Amino acid sequence: MSGPNVSVIFVCIWSTVAPDCNLREPESTYNVRLRYGLKVKIKALEQFYAENEDYGFKIHDSLSGSLYDHAINFKADFDILGEKNSLQKVAIQPTVEKYKWSDGETRYTMKAVKSFIKTEDDGKINWSPNGGAMCAVVNKDEKNPYGETQDTESYQVTSGVAYLTVKDSSITGNASHHTTHHLYVTRQKDNETYAAGAYNSLTSEDPQVDFNKYFNGESLDQEEIVVWFNLGMHHMPHTGDLPNTVFSTAHSSMLIEPMNYLLGDPSQASSQQVLIKTTDGKPEITRYGAKEATCPVDMAQLNPDLSSYSNSVSVMKCPFDGSKPDRARSIMQRWTWKISES
Fold first, then answer.
1. What's the rounded Cα separation, in Å, for the pair 86 and 137?
2. Rg of the Cα trace of the chain?
3. 165-176, pLDDT tens digit by residue?
């Protein structure tokens, strides 16, 4: 994603922690919005296990739906008006105050508490309950005409975010330290490309990439920084998940948009506006060249051709089978989506 003097590059890594399982990849979508906003969203399917009622519901005669977590890690490399940036946290907190105008009476209200993440020692962050915090990548050296820093802001949104519930997992060991929090910030380094490696699952105690080693106390004040964030969900399958879990039940997303960056609402520049004035009670409508949308659809073009369909193949992706090296990519599936090279 790019805008005036702003660029973002995304990298995505998917992790799932559960017992022996069949996994199917989640679907990732990126919704670009009018105000240079970007909503990153994932949707996932589910899996089943037998004889483990203590870890889920009994969903059929001999099946129980086993509880498990998905955590999909995204790397977002922001450059806001240059490469030297900082991460600001704005917490919305209740407060008790006395003001000059309150005649000595106590007022119960709320306020914005602003702080900066100074070093990588504080670079592991969880979202606050009740959506009570936001994070912003800012350039302290660049101000808008009103004296505020020009930022790109990250919001927790209502469709839920999650990291892995299991602490010190016996399965993943040191291979999944990128799944312990909602959000991370580190210094940008060319040799710290990914949060996990494709072969982390082979040597989980000494993995190809140990994300914990990225956090070594370096300054994050006006440096080239990188934000890593997790989307995901906790899922306990129920009877409605047989035979398939529909996408609508497993969503997770986060909204990224400018804050104090644009000097006004950019939708005002859109031609899709209508001005209505009334004269003697009668409307005068100015459309500015806008046309009402039409969408004729030939449904025949949308019907799939199933005549060439053949039997599908079911592939066990974990546990790792050493005789089939292709399965080494099972636990840590990697996608790279480069939005901008600016």
1. 6
2. 24
3. 888 888 889 999
